[in-house]
Input
Amino acid sequence: MTDITSNNKRIAKNTLFLYLRMLIVMPVSIYTSRVVLNTLGVGDYGIYNVVGGIVMTLGVLNGALSSSTSRFLTYELGKKDMDTLKKTFSSSLNLHIITALIVVLLAETIGLWFFYNKLVIPAERIDAAFWVYQFSILTTVFTFTQIPYNASLISHENMSIYAYVGLYDAFSKLAIVYVITISPIDTLVFYALLLMINSILVQIFYRYYTYAKYEECRFRLIKDWVLYKRLLSYSGWELFGGVASVSQGQGINILLNIFYGPTVNAARAIAYQIQNSVNLFIENFLMATRPQVIKNYADGNYDEMYNLTFKAAKYSYFLMLALILPIAFELRFILNLWLGNAYPEDTYIFTLIILAFSLTEIFHSALIMPFHAIGKMKLGNSLNGTIMILSLPISYIVLKAGASAYVVFLVLIITNVIVTCNGWLIVRHYVWFNVLNFARNVLWRCIIVTVFAFITPTLITYYMKDGCTRFFLLGFATEISLAIISYQLGLNSNEKKDIQQIVKIKLSKLIP
Output
């Protein structure tokens, strides 16, 4: 019981560090994106996002190895096997270096051909887009060799350093935005160059910090082919899952560019900027929880592994709903306040659908934690990856038939709901849990809370004219009503007792 309490405190502490970072980083990022859009213009903003997307598509190799590295480092920490931990880190670093070289080859051959022959870029901006592409390659390649160091930080649950570096990253990008507004150099090229330099500086700091703090973070030539085989076997199926994710992300983005041009890419980029800001809240909580899920599995505490996972899914959903409801009901007001009249026409509908997509993704994000802990990726990634990849040809067909651009996001929602349902059943196949209990205590409670949560903002929107007064009143009233509804209808009796106990402890400290 003491270990569980200690772990919960560690999760809470790490979550707090990440939230404090987010509270500062998010408004700075939102302001920065507005200035970038105004400075670059809609066309260049779309070009930057779609060109960088080609390199991110190649980054699927990195994503697969990253997941493998993080899982095995955390697992060995849970087993307290320092020798294997050192070998695992070094083997992962060696694999990332090799992968970085492969990415350079692919990016400068197949990627460059696709850049010149398939993307829709105005002729007068092709040279600028080329340099953006090259800077993106350098940034991505450097990031590849950085992954094992970041994975080590997460495995050690050292989230405070992310908070401090996150603050630097946000304010340095604010400085970059100011510089490009006064620079006589081509703003698109200069912006991409400065972002590359800044990213490399951040990664150098992470390397120095982890090298000094953790003894496993060293470069060593490892010849343990059995370990390489384990890493590659795991990452091989993760690679297939990564291809599926990229097909839904950058694959869809490239399709939108081919059918509708860079202006629609800009609209998608703005919508995903809002989504990413909202997701920061949830990612912080899940990032702090994930190492404990893996360590519980390594110790054989399967009930606690699922208990943490289910709580993470439900609480993350309530947090996400609390953010999304006010944004969805006041989206036009927010866009006008944030971007003025500069945003593309499709931004509004894209954002609404993508925010709904984020809600459905909560259960998938929580599912990933026990999936990676168990480490059996073949069935899940082969079946669900295939379903996710199908969203790309389906999107192509509907766009070719003349459908509106937003339809591709509806396709994503449908396919990912199917994937999430399959995923939970597959995880249960490896380590059993009560599906009815999960459906009743997590899914059903989330649905009930969502239905009742819509009442307050709907009434306020219906009876009040839009403006600052309604914006603040709707936000405040929605959060209060949602908190009450979540407590009364979203929590079971044990969870209510836990919250009551926490409140009593806090009050006893405040009131002697």
About this structure: The chain has a mean pLDDT of 80.
